[in-house]
Amino acid sequence: MRRLRRSRSEPRIELTPLIDIMVFLMTFFIYSLVLMVRVDILPMELKSFQSSEAATPAPAATVSMDLEGNLYFNRETIAIDDIAPRLVAERAAEPRTVFYLAVAEGKTDVDRAPLLQDILSRIHATGVPVSLVGRPRPR
Q1: pLDDT tens-digit series, residues 44-98
Q2: Separation of alpha carbons 131 and 86, rounded Å
Q3: What's the rounded Cα separation, in Å, for the pair 121 and 100?
Q4: What domains appear along the chain, each with residue ranges and CATH number?
Q5: Three-class SS state of 68
Q6: H helices of 37-102, where?
Q7: 3-state secondary structure of 43
């Protein structure tokens, strides 16, 4: 049986990866140096402006329903037949008025879904936009 002779080769240090890394680092530092240079811009005077009138928030009105199905307009008890005319009158008095519909949260024996649908259909018939409000979702 013959033995194979292997010549011992000496370890080599490859310079190509070393050169690649050095070029990469040099490019990185040159680029970061360019970004660190402060750029001077043209000096300009920023003027302050003032409004002649202070901004006022739009007035708001709320239609609310409690757990028993009682209706309120701005915390005053109101009948369901009086909601639509009251909204139209408020809108005529102040066109910027924002209207909200709030329903109390909780368990009750009263089925408020038909009442809520009736209120929404009456409000929709007036053409007055109303936003539904409720408790925000827990995060």
Answers
A1: 677 777 766 777 888 899 999 998 889 999 989 999 999 999 999 999 999 889 9
A2: 16
A3: 15
A4: 60-133 (3.30.420)
A5: coil
A6: 83-93
A7: coil
